[in-house]
Write a structure and sequence with these properties.
Elements (H helix, E strand, L loop, with lengths): L10 E5 L8 E8 L6 E7 L12 H4 L15 E2 L2 E2 L2 H19 L4 E5 L5 H15 L4 E3 L6 H11 L8 H6 L2 E5 L3 H4 L1 H10 L2 E5 L5 H4 L3 E3 L6 H14 L5 H7 E2 L1 H8 L4 H7 L4 H13 L3 E5 L1 H4 L4 H14 L9 E4 L6 H7 L5 E3 L2 E2 L2 H11 L12 H10 L4 E5 L3 H4 L3 H9 L3 E6 L12 E4 L8 E4 L4 E5 L12 H11 L11 H13 L21 H5 L4 E2 L26 E2 L18 E6 L25 E4 L1 H6 L7 E5 L4 E8 L7 E5 L32 E7 L4 E8 H12 L3 H4 L2 E9 L2 E8 L5 H9 L6 E8 L2 E8 L4 E6 L8 H9 L5 H6 L8 E3 L4 E2 H9 L5 H8 L9 H8 L9
Parallel strand pairs: 6-7, 6-16, 8-9, 8-12, 9-10, 11-22, 12-13, 16-17, 17-18, 23-27, 24-26
Antiparallel strand pairs: 1-2, 2-3, 4-5, 4-18, 14-15, 19-20, 20-21, 23-28, 24-27, 25-26, 25-28, 29-31, 29-34, 30-31, 32-33, 33-34, 35-36
Helix pairs in contact: 2-21, 3-16, 3-21, 3-22, 4-15, 9-12, 9-15, 18-20
Bound molecules: ligand MGD (2 copies), iron/sulfur cluster and molybdenum atom.
One ligand MGD binds next to helix 6, helix 14 and strand 23.
Length: 900
C-alpha cells in the first residue's frame, strides 16, 4: 500500500505488534520502482534475539495492513465528529461527575496487552493512585491471568523462569494447549530446528500435533489429571531431585499425597488416552533432564486454569528442572505486551510494579507517586467488571485497545451492558468495531508504526516499538490521551510527562523503589534503566529483566540459585484435585465447542483482516467437525451450520476433518458482527471463571449443532461506497434484507468489498440495487447460464458498481480472485466471461507465494516427497516458512487430516 506522507529515518528497528514472541522488525522507506511512490518494506531484524531476522506470515505482511482506510481519524461524540478539546472535556467531566456522585468505584478502565508499557503505566497510575479505585482490568484476564496466578503461587512472583535459548537447548519440549505452529510460529521454527522431541497435549489435531513425535488427544479439560499422574510416575520411577525438593521447595508431601491416586491406568481412563502412549510420554519426561513445558490457552482458559498451570510447575520442581539451560515451565504469552501489562499492574488484583495490595505496598506506591488517592484493595476482574457495568454499579467505563464485545465470554451480554451504560469511552485505531458501536465517545488512537514505547515479550525481554509513520488525521498516542484527561481531572503534576521515555524512567524507578529483602523484594526490577537518557531509550538494546545493579546487562534465566520470592524463599508445590469443565454437556447441548486461532489472522481482524492475501488461507467463519458428527447431524463439507449454546449462536461453514474428535467442535475466534452474521464465537461461552485468577473458561462450551439450509448463494462485488451502505444496513439488521438473507460475511478486495451471502430466497436484486445503490432498473444487465449444477446468473451495473452472482450451491460460484479482478478493470465482456469461470475453493497454503493446497497435492501426486522438493518446485514455504508444517502434513498422506 502506498504511503506518501512519511517523515522519519529511512530504516527503523521496531517490534512486531502481534504475538508474544516479540520479533524484531526492520521497517524501511523505499520508493516503489513501479510508481515512484514511497512504500514501506518490512523485514525481520537480524539483530533481534527473538527472531534473528525471521518473520512469520503475519509479521511479513505488516506493510499490507498500513494506510488510512478504515482508520478512526477524529474523535466522535455520540456519532458526530468533534475536536479534541470537546472530546477530552467530555471524558473528564463525565468521569468527574460520576466519581463525585457515586464514588471512585463507579468508574473502570478495561485495557489491553496490546498497549505499550508506557500507555499502560499512566492508565494504571491514574486509576490506582489518583482516582482511587483498582477497577482497572485488561484482556490479559482472558489470556494470561491463570499463568500469572500459578507463577505467584509457586514462586512468590509472576516471573517466567525460562528464555528462548532454552527451547534450542531442550531435548524434550512438551506443548500443552498450544498450537504454536500457528500461534508462535517463529518459536515453533526454532523448536523444529533444534530437533528436540516434541510431545503435544491437545484434544484436537492441529498442524502442531502433526509435527509432534507424540500427540496425546486428551479429553478436554483433563490436563491436571495428566500432570498429577506424571508427578506420581516421576516419584515411582526414581526421577525426583530430592536435594532440590529438600533445599528449595515446600509442600511436597501434601502435593504428592493428592497426586498419589493418579495411577497411569486411572489417568489413561480419565483423559481417554491410550495407556501405552501415556506411559511413553511419562517415561520420556522421566528420563529427559532437559525438558521445557510450553503452555498456553488450552490450560489457561479454564475454570481451573491456575491449578492446571501448577500441576505442570509441580513436575518441574519435583525434578529440579528449573533455572537450568534447556529446562523449565514456560508459560508463553499471547499478546505483544501481555508481559508489560503484568509489570505495570494492569490486572485489577495487582497494584503496580509487581506489588499487590498489602498495606505496606499501598503506602510505598502512594509515597512514590505522591498519590492523591490510593486504591485500597483489588478491583473488579474482567467478568465481574462487565457484570458491574450491567448491574449499574459501574457507570463510566473507558476501554482501550481491546474489543470486549467480541472477545469476552457471553459477548452479546457485554455489548448490551455497554449500550446501556451511561458513559462508554473507547480508544481504538479503527472506527468500526463491535465495541466502538457501543461507545458514547470514540477516541482515535495511533497504532503500530506510529507510536513509540516499549513492550516485553514472553521471555521477559523489553524491546522498543518505534514510530516510522506520522500520526494519521487527528489521532493521538494512548499515553497522551490518558495524561490529557488526568490533567483535566486536576492531576497535572503527576502526569506532566513529555514523552514515553519520561514515563519509562518513572516506571523503571518505581520497580527499584524500596526493592530489597528488608522492605519488599520483587522479581521485577529494571532500576538500572531509571536514569537512561532519551537517546539511550531510543537505542535500547532488547534486554531481559531484572536489569538492576546486580545484573546491569539483564538476566536471561531466573531461579538458578534456587532462591524464590515466597516468604520462606522456597518454591511451593500446590496440591491439586482435578476438576471437569463447568460447562458440561447434556442432552440438549451434547457437544463441546473449542475455540482458538488461525494461522493468518490476529484476533478480531482489525489489522490482519485488511490484508487481502491473509484471507486466502481462510476467508469465512468456519466450524471444524468430525466426519462421524457430520453424518449424525446431516452436515456436508462446506455447508453452513449453526452452533448454539444457552447463551448464543454461531454460524459458520463446516469443515469436516478427522483432526477433530467425535463429540468436539472447533471454531476460530476471529470473526465478529462487524465482519459476518452471527460469527462471534465468544457469545456462546458461559462466563464461569477460575476462582484464583478470574480467568474465564473459554475453551469448553456445551453446544448443539444443526445444518442451515440455504435456498441459494450469492456473491456480491461492490465498490467501497456501495459496500459501506450495504454493510451498515446489514449491521443495523435491516429487516427487509434479512427476510432474504440467512448469513453474510465480507472480504475486502482491491477497489471495494466482496460480500458472500447465503439466502433464504432470492431478493428482488433490482429493487435492492435501486434502494441501496441508487441504480435504476435500466442500468442493470442480467445474464443467465444453465449449468449441470443448476442455474447461475449474474446481474451487473454498467460501470460495475455492483456485480451479483448467484447459484444454488456455494461451491459452484466462480473463482473469487477472477471475479475480484472485474472491480479493478471493468472490461466490457468481463461479466459473461466470469460466469463461465473455474469454480472456487482453492485454499492457499502458502500465502506469501500464493501456492494453493490443490497445487501442492498435485505435485505430491506427481512424486514430490519432501517439503524441500515442494519448495523448489512451487516456491511454497520459501518466504516466511509459516506454511511448512502444513506442507509437511499434506505430505503425510497416511494421516489424511484436513488441517485448519
Ligand atoms: N495466528 C495467530 N497467532 C496468535 C494470535 C492470533 O490471534 N493469531 N493470538 C495470540 C494470543 S493473544 C494468544 S493468547 C496466543 C494463544 O496461543 P494458543 O494457546 O496456542 O492458541 P489457541 O488456538 O487459542 O489454543 C491452543 C490450543 O488449545 C487447545 N485446547 C483446547 N482445550 C484444551 C484442553 O482442555 N487441554 C489442552 N491441553 N489443550 C486444549 C486447542 O485445541 C488449541 O489447539 O496466540 C497468540 N498468537
Ligand atoms: N472464545 C474465545 N474467546 C477468546 C479467546 C479464545 O481463545 N476463545 N481468546 C482470548 C484472548 S487470549 C485474547 S488476548 C482476547 C483478544 O481479544 P481482543 O483484545 O478483544 O481483540 P483485538 O482484536 O486484539 O482487539 C484489539 C483492539 O485494539 C485496537 N488497537 C490496535 N492497536 C491499538 C493501539 O495502539 N491503541 C488503541 N487504543 N487501540 C489499538 C484494534 O483495532 C482492536 O480493535 O480474546 C479472548 N477471547
Ligand atoms: S512470530 Fe509472527 S506474529 Fe509473532 S512476533 Fe514474530 S512475526 Fe510477529
Ligand atoms: Mo491472548
Amino acid at each position: 500500500m502506498a504511503l506518501t506522507k512519511l517523515f522519519s529515518a529511512r530504516r527503523s528497528c521496531t517490534t512486531c505488534p502481534y504475538c508474544g514472541v516479540g520479533c524484531g522488525v526492520a521497517a524501511t522507506r523505499e520508493s516503489s520502482p513501479a510508481t515512484g511512490e514511497e512504500v514501506i518494506r518490512i523485514q525481520g531484524d537480524t539483530q533481534h534475539p527473538a527472531n534473528f531476522g525471521k518473520l512469520c506470515v503475519k509479521g511479513s505482511s505488516l506493510a499490507d495492513t498500513l494506510g488510512d482506510q478504515g482508520r478512526l481519524l477524529t474523535p466522535q461524540l455520540h456519532g458526530e465528529e468533534c475536536d479534541w478539546d470537546t472530546a477530552m472535556e467530555f471524558a473528564a467531566s463525565r468521569l468527574r461527575a460520576t466519581i463525585d456522585e457515586h464514588g471512585p468505584d463507579s468508574v473502570a478502565f478495561y485495557l489491553s496487552g496490546q498497549l505499550l508499557t508506557e500507555d499502560y503505566y499512566v492508565a494504571n497510575k491514574l486509576m490506582k493512585g489518583f482516582i482511587g479505585t483498582a477497577n482497572v482490568d485488561t484482556n490479559s484476564r482472558l489470556c494470561m491471568s491463570s499463568a500469572v496466578a500459578a507463577y505467584k503461587r509457586a514462586f512468590g512472583a509472576d516471573a517466567v523462569p525460562c528464555n528462548y535459548d532454552d527451547l534450542d537447548e531442550a531435548e524434550l519440549v512438551v506443548l500443552i494447549g498450544s498450537n504454536a505452529a500457528w500461534t508462535h510460529p517463529i518459536l515453533f521454527q526454532r523448536m523444529q530446528a533444534a530437533k528436540a522431541k516434541l510431545v503435544v497435549i491437545d484434544p484436537r489435531g492441529s498442524v502442531t500435533t502433526e509435527m509432534a513425535d507424540l500427540h496425546l488427544a486428551i479429553t478436554p479439560g483433563s490436563d491436571a489429571a495428566l500432570f498429577n499422574g506424571l508427578l506420581h510416575y516421576l516419584t515411582e520411577s526414581g526421577a525426583l531431585d530430592q536435594r532440590f525438593i529438600d533445599n528449595h521447595t515446600e509442600n511436597f508431601a501434601d502435593t504428592l499425597y493428592a497426586a498419589a491416586e493418579w495411577t497411569p491406568e486411572k489417568v489413561a481412563k480419565y483423559c481417554s488416552v491410550d495407556l501405552e502412549q501415556l506411559l511413553e510420554f511419562y517415561a520420556l519426561y522421566s528420563r529427559t533432564e532437559k525438558t521445557v513445558s510450553f503452555y498456553s490457552q488450552g490450560v489457561n482458559q479454564s475454570s481451573t486454569g491456575t491449578d492446571k498451570n501448577n500441576t505442570i510447575i509441580n513436575c518441574h520442581l519435583a525434578t529440579g528442572r528449573i533455572g537450568k539451560p534447556g529446562c523449565g515451565p514456560f508459560s508463553i504469552t499471547g499478546q505483544p505486551n501481555a508481559m508489560g501489562g503484568r509489570e505495570v499492574g494492569g490486572l485489577a488484583n495487582m497494584l503496580a510494579a509487581h506489588m499487590d495490595f498489602t498495606e505496606d505496598n499501598i503506602d510505598r506506591v502512594g509515597r512514590f507517586w505522591s498519590a492523591a488517592k490510593m486504591a485500597q484493595g483489588p478491583g473488579l476482574k474482567a467478568v465481574e467488571l462487565f457484570d458491574a457495568v450491567e448491574s449499574g454499579q459501574i457507570k463510566a467505563v473507558w476501554i482501550m485497545a481491546t474489543n470486549p464485545a467480541v472477545s469476552m465470554p457471553n459477548a452479546r451480554r457485554v455489548a448490551a451492558a455497554l449500550k446501556q451504560c451511561p458513559t462508554v469511552i473507547v480508544s481504538d485505531c479503527v472506527g468500526d468495531t463491535d465495541t466502538a458501536r457501543c461507545a458514547d465517545l470514540l477516541l482515535p488512537a495511533t497504532t503500530w508504526g506510529e507510536k513509540t514505547g516499549t513492550v516485553t515479550n514472553s521471555e521477559r525481554r523489553i524491546s522498543r516499538q518505534k514510530s516510522f509513520l506520522p500520526k494519521p488525521g487527528a489521532a493521538r498516542h494512548d499515553w497522551e490521551i490518558v495524561c490529557d484527561v488526568a490533567r483535566r481531572l486536576g492531576f497535572g503534576e503527576a502526569f506532566a510527562f513529555e514523552s514515553p521515555a519520561d514515563i519509562f524512567r518513572e516506571h523503571a524507578a518505581l520497580s527499584g523503589f524500596e526493592n530489597n529483602r528488608e522492605q519488599a523484594r520483587r522479581a521485577f526490577d529494571i532500576s538500572a534503566l531509571a536514569n537512561i537518557s532519551d537517546q539511550e531509550y531510543d537505542f535500547l538494546t532488547p534486554v531481559q529483566w531484572p536489569v538492576n545493579g546486580a545484573h546491569p546487562q539483564g538476566t536471561p534465566r531466573l531461579f538458578g540459585d534456587g532462591d524464590f520470592y515466597t516468604p520462606s524463599g522456597r518454591a511451593r508445590f500446590i496440591a491439586v484435585q482435578p476438576q471437569c469443565p463447568k460447562q458440561e454437556t447434556r442432552d440438549e447441548y451434547p457437544l463441546i465447542l473449542n475455540s482458538g486461532r488461525l494461522r493468518d489472522q490476529w484476533h478480531t481482524m482489525t489489522r490482519t483482516g485488511r490484508a487481502r492475501k491473509l484471507l486466502d488461507h481462510s476467508e469465512a467463519p468456519e466450524l471444524h467437525v468430525h466426519p462421524q458428527e457430520a453424518s449424525k447431524f446431516g452436515i456436508e463439507d462446506a455447508q453452513l451450520v449453526r452452533v448454539a449454546s444457552e447463551k448464543g449462536q454461531f454460524f459458520g461453514r463446516a469443515r469436516i476433518t478427522a483432526s477433530q474428535k467425535p463429540g468436539q467442535l472447533f471454531a476460530p475466534i476471529h470473526w465478529s458482527d462487524s465482519l459476518a452474521h452471527n460469527a462471534t464465537v465468544s457469545a456462546l461461552a458461559i462466563p464461569f471463571t477460575d476462582p484464583v485468577s478470574g480467568q474465564p473458561e473459554l475453551k469448553q462450551v456445551a453446544v448443539k449443532l444443526e445444518p442451515l439450509i440455504a435456498h441459494s448463494y450469492a456473491c456480491l462485488l461492490l465498490r467501497t461506497k456501495a459496500a459501506e451502505e450495504l454493510h451498515s444496513r446489514l449491521q443495523a439488521g435491516d429487516s427487509q434484507l434479512f427476510e432474504t438473507i440467512l448469513h453474510w460475511y465480507r472480504v475486502p478486495v482491491e477497489g471495494g468489498y466482496r460480500f458472500e451471502l447465503a439466502l433464504k430466497k432470492q431478493p428482488d436484486w433490482q429493487a435492492v440495487a435501486e434502494k441501496l445503490f441508487n441504480l435504476s432498473g435500466k442500468q442493470l444487465n442480467r445474464k443467465q447460464l444453465q449449468l449441470p449444477s443448476g442455474e447461475r446468473w449474474l446481474l451487473h451495473s454498467e460501470h460495475m458498481e455492483l456485480l451479483v452472482f448467484t447459484s444454488a450451491a456455494w461451491q459452484t460460484l466462480p473463482d473469487r480472485k477472477t471475479l475480484e479482478s472485474a472491480l479493478q478493470q471493468p472490461l466490457p465482456d468481463a461479466p459473461a466471461t466470469l460466469l463461465h469461470d473455474v469454480p472456487a475453493g482453492a485454499q492457499m497454503v502458502c500465502t506469501c507465494l500464493q501456492v494453493s493446497r490443490k497445487e501442492i497435492e498435485a505435485a505430491i501426486a506427481e512424486g514430490a516427497a519432501s517439503v524441500d522438493e515442494l519448495s523448489e518446485l512451487l516456491g511454497c514455504g520459501t518466504n516466511c516458512g509459516s506454511c511448512k508444517p502444513e506442507i509437511s502434513a499434506l505430505l503425510n498422506t497416511d494421516l489424511a487430516v484436513t488441517v485448519g
